[in-house]
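Encode chain A's predicted structure.
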Amino acid sequence: MTLVLDSLTKSFGEVRALDGVSLTVRPGQVFGFLGANGAGKTTTMRIVLDILLPDSGTVTWQGRPAARVPRRTWGYLPEERGLYPRMTVMDQLVFLASLRGIARSRARRDVDHWLARFRITEHAGRRAEQLSKGNQQKVQFIAAILHDPDVLIMDEPFSGLDPVNVAMLKDAFLEMRDRGKALVFSTHQMEMVEELCDCLAIIDHGRIIALGTNEELVHNAFASRSQVTARFEGTSPQIAAWVQRRGGHMVDSTAQFTIENSIEIAGLLQDAAKDGLELADVSLRRPNLESVFLHLTGRELRD
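Encoded structure for chain A:
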């Protein structure tokens, strides 16, 4: 029972959206997909769900082509709101469950359970358009899992949720993981990936450029190196040019450098002083997933 993507390619006109994407997701595993907007995450997910066809490559579940797998195998939480705005929460959840072969009587019981669990029982008779964005997201999550799919694919599942609702959603899909479901999600929230994912992929311009656990990605990118963050007085172009010459990156108003040892830190600070740059603050920290993403792609995740 394994989800396997093998050498997926997809172009839209002259734009190469996917270029040889391959990965494996196992039951009982949470797989994170990291990439800036336009990197290829949503295209990959829609190919898995047979919404889009790849130009080449294959998707299989349990060794069978994804297109031949029963539709109730999949659960999908899209980034866009996909609810019927003028339909009540209860009616549309029961209707969507029935499309997956769930009897209406059972669907109503299950909907009652999930609405209570997510603390939105009072919204059962309200139209979707009357709900907050956060509550709409919870309803969409319920719609994605009512038929108890083997594979749950989520595009930005924490969008629009406050910390309390984020915790509810995390508990729900970690429970699914513990029941042996395969979960794939994309997000712009690095801390969610670091906390929840057993394995993750960084995709950039349609290619997977890093694949493994959080610890493996950090080690492969930086080994035993550390990161120095420096903030300078002023924001002149000379500062940015100096940082680039020294092999660093500017992120907002701070400079980030990757160093091997304390001798390099001393040399960095001495060079800054010698070149007339005034430091306002310097800090040293161990690289994390955000550092890896910046190192590999040259940009922040939200760019």
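The mean pLDDT is 89.
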